[in-house]
Amino acid sequence: MANNSSSRSRQKPNLLVTGTPGTGKTTMASALAEAAQLRHINVGDLVRAKNLHDGWDDELDCYVINEDLVCDELEDMMTQGGNIVDYHGCDFFPERWFDCVVVLQTENSILYDRLKNRGYSDAKLKNNIECEVFQMLLEEAKESYREEIVVALKSNSVEDMSHNVETLTDWVHSWSTTSL
Q1: Which CATH superfamily is domain 14-171 in?
Q2: Neighbours of 11 (CB within 10 A)
Q3: Is 18 annotated as a binding residue?
Q4: Does the annotation place 22 within a ligand binding site?
Q5: Is 118 annotated as a binding residue?
Q6: Which of 86, 91, 103, 137 has the fewest CB atoms below 10 angstroms from its CB?
Q7: pLDDT tens digits in sequence order for the chain, 180 residues long
């Protein structure tokens, strides 16, 4: 994880936590926000609360987010810094926003059970497992952001999450002290 010199006008870094649904993004981002004293922004919740979508996708059983509206809504907060953005996609966010992009990855058998327990339809389950098998979100992150800020972290267990939160909290504190 590298520091982004163009973001040095902010006192705290911005992180993106991404990964296939069921990898623990929201749980980890929430724990990290508390530990590192950052703001947690769950994009799915924001889309629902502010109607930043173009309707409902019956096949995928989710809102079709309006990426431009989401970016417009987040711009001022991201400029201030100190945010953890939590979303399963990442290629539409401006690169300048993030100092670290975390891609959570989960073993397929564990992910399958998590998604099945959420009541995902067979089609949605298959789509998300394939996404994880082919590491589509890691590839999307590597194509969308500088390689030195993209980090893949294992997210199979509570122990993994605790380790990830500790590692990232240390990074946030290090980033904040070196930016002063």
Answers
A1: P-loop containing nucleotide triphosphate hydrolases (3.40.50.300)
A2: 12
A3: no
A4: yes
A5: yes
A6: 91
A7: 554 444 568 999 999 999 999 999 999 999 999 999 999 999 999 999 999 999 999 888 889 999 999 999 999 999 999 999 999 999 999 999 999 999 999 999 999 999 999 999 998 999 999 999 999 999 999 999 999 999 999 999 999 999 999 999 999 999 988 754
